[in-house]
Amino acid sequence: MIKFSYVLPDPLSYKDGSEFEGDLACVKRAGYDAVELQIADPADQNVPQLARALNNAGLSLCAFQSGGTYASRGNCLATAEAAVRERTLQVLERHIEFAASFEPSVGEHARIVLGSLQGARREERDQAAGQARIVEALGRIGRFATTHGVTLAFEPVNHEEIGWHNTIAAAAATVRNLSEPGLQLMVDTFHMNIEERDMLAPLAGVADLLVHVHLSETNRDVLGEGHWPTLEFLRELERIGYKGFCSIGVYNTRRSRKDCITHCLKRIQGIE
To answer: What is the tens place of the pLDDT at every residue in 138-170?
Structure first.
């Protein structure tokens, strides 16, 4: 059975702990199974405080996103600057250690979403050179994840944001070639809508690699406000045997966050 989680911002972006705890409580009341967080760098987090907040809310951490420092600090894996690549890998190592420090969710540690840290095409105009650096970095960080019993969920991100591995096929090929247990695949419906010709067909071919899913409307609003085929998509995930988390993300809306949290799960429950 597919489990559902909701994506919340970095805890440090809230004005205070009570506001963050209020959102966690709302996620729990709405009926979600877990939460996914945007965490730029675990070194900045008060990990014991975060763990207590999750425990008090009765929620597990199913995944967290690692790409925040690309925009804020220039961390990037494709760049020719070796010092920047090394700094980026060190951030990812902290993410892996962070994930390993939390109690496993449903028997598994939180997935680490990895996609944006590859960088945009402007970081390296030589496509092959950028690809080679990214693959080398993925191999290293994948081995590090494996030794810590943690899984990186490699995300295909659309070409307007990131310069490499834009499609499911491209990302899956790299994951298969590296063959590292700590590096697997995820999909995001927003990016699929831009890059894939068929919204369902690619899933069966990566069923053995798929460890995480982002469910986001085509316009980044709440589910139902765009044209994503949510029911058909969920049925296809079930057909291929996917039993992981679908994390719902809303990034472009006029609604309050609490309204978005409640609306999206009700939408799913209403169409299933």
So the answer is: 999 999 999 999 999 999 999 999 999 999 999
Structure-block tokens of residue 28: 């729990």
Q: How many residues can be counted in the chain?
A: 272
The CATH number for 131's domain is 3.20.20.150
The amino acid at residue 20 is: F
Taken in order 255, 256, 259, 260, is the CA torsion positive or negative?
positive
For residue range 184-205, list pLDDT tens digits in order.
999 999 999 999 999 999 999 9
The pTM score is: 0.96
Range of the structural domain that residue 24 is part of:
3-271
As for how many domains the chain has, the answer is 1
| CB count in 10 Å sphere of residue 96 | 25
pLDDT range class, residue 60, cuts 50, 70, 90: very high
The whole-number pLDDT of residue 102 equals 77
Tokens 């071919």 belong to 205
